[in-house]
Amino acid sequence: xxxxxxxLIVVKAAGGAFFLYPVYTxxxxxxxxxxxxxxxxxxxxxxFLILWEVPSGxxxxxxxxxxxxxxxxxLELVSSVPMLWVEGFWAFAVLYALxxxxxxxxxxxxxxxxxxxxxxxxxxxxYLGYLRGAEWGGMLCGALVGGSIVAWGAIDEYALCIQxxxxxxxxxxxxxxxxxxxxxxxxxxxxxxxxILRSGGRMVFGIGGVLGLVLVALAVQGLxxxxxxxxx
Length: 232
Fold this sequence. Notes:
Elements: H1 3-15, H2 24-29, H3 35-63, H4 65-80, H5 89-106, H6 109-117, H7 124-151, H8 157-177, H9 193-205, H10 208-224
Helix pairs in contact: 1-7, 1-8, 3-4, 3-5, 3-9, 3-10, 4-5, 4-6, 4-8, 7-8
């Protein structure tokens, strides 16, 4: 396993370590949100993730996959720091939008970078499994640690969990920045940034089937997060 693949594993593990996960609904309720607002935030996350998916792929081809991976990690970090103090729906809506763009920037770029760095392409599935395992491992560790902190009644337990999450995002960003640079694509993706955004918007809103998938995805995102409503 080369160093870049090991760093990708670090990026996935650290990025998945969300220490507030077991008590996230309780945290949001403590920040002047209700259950309707919480579910709406999840739909905002899904919306920005979908809208940025196409432009992020084009930008990765134009500017390099490493830069998009680093951008995604940076946005996840930027969206996590204000959680220490912000309150209310609209403040969290901005953070969720930033997080959606960050997740979309990582989506695809990370896997494409992995494929480019593999010497034996037939090992792609195995290494994708490593990445997914690292992500789920980070989520599990974050949930266990965060849940324990809250259960033990630490002083300002929510702030402590957020600080640990911020530290994990810093680790992910450092891992992304230390990746070996990849060569940007040539030829087919040389349009300007505004053109890329317009093309992505036309694809989503100009084709009925794609727009339908977007609407279904927004609904599924909300339904898949029903467990947020069942926390004690």
